[in-house]
Design goal:
TIM Barrel, 2 domains, globular, alpha/beta, 9 helices, eight-stranded parallel sheet, five-stranded antiparallel sheet
Length: about 450
């Protein structure tokens, strides 16, 4: 299932492009739950409830862009089955609502606003559908795939398509009001379902619990482990079966494996507020700026991606507190991505060798960034340490294992030194590694 879509330990150009253009993005939850004050709708909600009074996709997109996000994944359909576009596959969609007098299309407005302002657009269509009478049967799989085709063919190129493991449970299901279970490993026929993505959205990375290109770290706190590897071997919940969305042993998902079979870096998702959807009771409970920066360092800064949950309110806009916090975060990110104090070229070095940067010892260094060039080779670094030359003596500042796509280290007290060196202690098979160092 995964092998046909992922080349193995060596990342595809698609993944490398994703890392360069979209290290941090958002996922937009704005649908029926916004108006019912729920996180997971049951599927029996009246479409007439969806009626934002002042929907403004541009306001949302611009606030996210000011927050440093470079793309947005839109939840086109959540588990309640309500579709934010005028689909032909179900009557439970936006055309049955009073929004824009039944002529609205939230997916189109978001996609247009993203492209107008230079943001990537991605799509999530929930595999689980608590409204659809056919869910759990082969007929629903065809309905679901047709929903994918509608989105992928009508709303332009996507930078990412998103899948999750919330599949099967109680629901409305056309009025039966029952619990339906599915076999996570075979029901969705993921190999052929994801083939639709490849054919219709060839540039998009596929995210799910198991990738095949971007993986879930097993938590919704936004954290990968400090020494996280992009490489991983996918572990199923039961021996003798294959891992699949919703059927994964997550014990290594936040850490990865230095000898992992596939390069599938973690996408660390976390909501800006306590919940993924808007709840009036959560006004003023946005994550603090300090929390957001710490999440960034433990996602992007640990060789992964940061996906921040954004929840427009019932008017169809971002609340003032969300806009303000995003603006603060966007300014704070310049600390990690601004003009370098010093920067090396990419150097190929072997274990025992080092990469050096000479410095003006009056400069204050607050952050350090390491990158490993992975094209054609994959992750090689297994152990390294970093020394600073201070008062003509070398002092070890830190030690580490993984570098991968990106590694960010921050000093609470600014560092001043004459020279900095990165020493490789161990690599896979004593192979050389290509690394670079940036100081800010």
């Amino acid at each position: 299932m995964i092998g046909a879509l992922n080349p193995g330990r060596v990342p595809s150009q698609r993944i490398l492009r994703h890392a360069e253009k979209y290290p941090i993005y958002g996922i937009i939850h704005f649908s029926m739950n916004t108006f019912t004050d729920k996180e997971w709708g049951y599927g029996d909600e009246d479409p007439a409830l969806f009626n934002p009074t002042d929907f403004d996709a541009e306001q949302i997109v611009l606030a996210c862009k000011a927050g440093g996000l470079t793309g947005l994944v839109l939840v086109c359909k959540h588990h309640d089955g309500f579709c934010l576009w005028p689909t032909k596959t179900t009557k439970h969609n936006i055309s049955a609502s009073p929004f824009r007098n039944g002529k609205g299309d939230v997916v189109k407005e978001f996609a247009d606003a993203c492209r107008k302002h230079g943001m990537g657009i991605g799509f999530y269509i929930s595999p689980w559908d608590r409204n659809n009478a056919s869910y759990g049967t082969p007929a629903y799989l065809e309905i679901y795939r047709e929903q994918m085709r509608e989105i992928y063919s009508n709303y332009g190129p996507a930078f990412e398509v998103w899948f999750d493991g919330a599949n099967g449970g109680d629901g409305f299901y056309g009025g039966t009001r029952e619990t339906r279970k599915i076999d996570h490993t075979v029901y969705y026929d993921w190999a052929n379902t994801w083939k639709i993505v490849r054919e219709m959205q060839p540039q998009a990375c596929i995210f799910s619990d198991v990738g095949p290109e971007v993986r879930w770290p097993g938590n919704e706190k936004g954290f990968a482990e400090d020494e996280c590897y992009g490489s991983i071997t996918l572990l199923p919940m039961e021996a003798g079966k294959k891992a699949a969305p919703g059927f994964m042993d997550y014990s290594m998902s936040a850490k990865g494996m230095p000898d992992g079979e596939f390069f599938i870096p973690p996408e660390c998702d976390v909501p800006l507020r306590p919940g993924w959807f808007y709840h009036e009771a959560e006004e003023g409970r946005q994550k603090s700026l300090e929390e957001l920066c710490n999440i960034y360092l433990h996602s992007v800064g640990c060789g992964g991606f940061m996906n921040l949950g954004i929840s427009p309110n019932r008017r169809g806009r971002l609340s003032d507190g969300d806009v303000s916090r995003l603006a603060e975060f966007g300014q704070a990110l310049k600390k990690y991505n601004g003009m370098p104090i010093a920067q090396s070229e990419v150097a190929q070095i072997r274990p025992g060798e080092n990469l050096r940067l000479h410095l003006d010892d009056t400069q204050n260094i607050s952050t350090l960034e390491l990158r490993e060039e992975l094209a054609n080779v994959g992750e090689q670094v297994l152990r390294y340490h970093i020394d600073a030359l201070q008062d003509d003596a070398w002092k070890t500042l830190l030690t580490g294992n993984a570098i991968g796509l990106r590694r960010l280290k921050e000093w609470k007290e600014p560092l001043v030194c004459q020279e900095l060196r990165v020493v490789l202690d161990e690599t896979r098979g004593d192979n050389p590694a290509r690394i670079s160092l940036t100081l800010r």
